[in-house]
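[Meeting: bench + compute handoff]

Bench side (C.D.) handed over the final construct sequence. Compute side (W.E.) agreed to return the predicted structure before the next meeting so the bench team could plan truncations. Sequence as handed over:
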Amino acid sequence: MKNHYETLGLQEGASQEAIQEAFERLSKELNPANNENQEFFIEEHEKVQEAYKVLYNSSILASE
């Protein structure tokens, strides 16, 4: 099973704000348009996007 917290470099139970900040930072770093090995960065960027969607959505549901 994927550890989405690990993908974003966070500890389990991180806040919505921490998830958002990690996503924004990694999105900039891994943007394929800014890197030479685009295939690798496309894959990594997709992993970060998936982790963000899962964690951010689950943190919103948990706060309701």
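W.E. noted at the follow-up: The radius of gyration is 12 Å. C.D. will use this when planning the next construct.
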